[in-house]
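Researcher: Please translate sequence to structure tokens.
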Amino acid sequence: MMLWGFFLPAHDVRAMSLDQMKALAGTGLLGLRVDEVFHRCGLPAAIADSADSAHKKRPVRWGDVSMALSSMDWDLLYGRQHADARKPDWANAGPAGGPCLSDLSELVVHAKGERGVLSVRKRADKQGYVTTYQVPDNPYAAHQVVEVTGRWMAAMAVSGLHERYGKPDEILSDRGRQIHRYWVVEKNNQQMPISLHAVDFEIDAGGKTTARYVVQSDGIEFVQQKLDALLRQWEKDYVLD
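Model: Translation complete:
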């Protein structure tokens, strides 16, 4: 993805509000494990596994349903109309889950594999704490949602997009398509950034409407890098002075 518009300095993020971001269908799945997604949304229409031939896939089960998946990243495809032309690694022979589609024609949930769980417990001698990081044996629990892509059933005018959220923080070009990006930063009461999301709206070729959006958490590398820059600026402004 190539930047062709403008870019705000790290300390000057003018994002849409956190509540506005959360109102976008599917964003409530960010941070969840895949087993939690299945409980909330039901099984998807298909799963695309990012593993190549060098990565082993193993049989896994969800209730009575058998799958063969790797420990690499997965895309959970909800809705029968999805843009991914690849043959899915698992296709749902039964009814696909619809509770999380809301007013969407398509929802793609991207989950990173081998995501561990951090736990902190007090030492037996009560002299400090022990921190552990363990990847669950259950592959569904070891995959965590870091990105969601939604497609509305009806497109929104770009003028309506800007009226609702304001002008984008960045304008990008991706393979000839225009992307309007909003940065959503969450801060604690000391104004320290504690989370960051990139919200991208894909604009049609005529530049007039948008029907597809992508929300990426700081589990995605470039978002984490931006969050790190915001934290460094916060330390400079509030801690080091």
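Researcher: Any highlights?
Model: The first strand starts at residue 2 and ends at 3.
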